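Please go through the sequence and fold tokens given here and tell me how the chain folds. Record follows.
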Amino acid sequence: MSDQSTNSIAFVASGDIPQSPPPALEAGAVKWMRENLFSSIPNSILTLVALALIYKIGMNTIPWIANGVWNTKSLAECRDVLDGTVAGCFSVLTERWNQLLYGFKYPSDQYWRPNLALVLMLFAAAPVLFFDLPRKLLTFTAVYPFLAFWLIWGGPVITPIVALLGCAAAAWVFNKYGKANFALGFFGGIVAALIVWKITGFAIPESTDGTWLQAVASRDLGGFMLNLMLGVTCVSLSVPLGIALALGRQSSMPLIKGICVVFIEFIRGVPLITLLFVASVMLSYFFPPDATVDLFLRVVIMITMFSAAYIAEVIRGGLAALPKGQYEAADSLGLDYAQAMRLIILPQALKISIPGIVNVAVGLFKDTTLVSVISMFDLVGMIRGPILAATEWNGVYWELLGFAAVLFFIVCYGISQYSQWLERRLATDHR
């Protein structure tokens, strides 16, 4: 009896039982590989095939890069140094780096000017890209385009001041009439800016007389600097223009709606390379005979129009994705059109449209290489033209094109990563 009573007494724990470690297949790198690389038989086969391809490519590429030559003066001298060894001739990058980045005509003693403009651009873009920063920094953002213009092109300081006055007139018209109709205020502001520039005789100077900085003509711009300038300028201009076109297409005013529909459908139906030829050959005929419209400005106009048409459709999709209740909620609060768009509709539509806008921006930046077909020596134009035409480097392809691919990948990957961060920050999936 005593033995049975003793055995029936339950055990009472005096403390927490230590946690056991997870199984080896459910922790660390093993778990990640099992879930992402070997989750099923087809995925396992694809993983093994991909690893085999990466190994084969790496075994051929790494020695080609590691054994490359960096300090010769020509391709013939590089081949003599290699003496039959299969390796890259990267001396063309060390010899022609300045032409690849700045073109072959930009004054070498003035490289500090585009470099300074690039650094200042990072500070100017920061309050726009990262909205936690103080809003007071937007003042420098508004002034930066005119400062960058003067730094890169040089010439008299009055030129960017006149441009700033035109934009100030556009802002005044937009604030006055944009409250009633966003599209009307936007296009009215453009007309006001053009009138101010016409009255003041706005033009890009070609001489250096009486200037603070040495004037550099647009035809002397080139290299990757030209790609960055076109990409940043056109994206910055096409986003607000695309918003205006998207809102104009949904406007209740038949004239504005018709103009926006015709513009969007026509531009989207024409290849960009055709528009670039129009900018190079025909666009100057649409301006007054005495007007000297620079080729760079003409190209910016055409690329901006092209990308704005696509961004307008992306934003229109974001507007269509919003439920009708959002518009009714704005009406119930007594908001007018401008207030409803600024406070309720556009913030939600733009969040939804972020992936599409970024896709257009990345494609636009890569499409800036098409300007080489109209004799603008961007990065690809420099490779296809002056560098490969030189007898010293005729025959070097992989090294130059690989360098161009790396530069474009860095910029496009940075844009993609920022968009993903912005989507997570704004919670675009409505979780």
About this structure: The longest helix spans residues 337-367. Residues 203-210 have pLDDT under 50 and may be disordered. DSSP finds 17 helices and no strands in the chain.
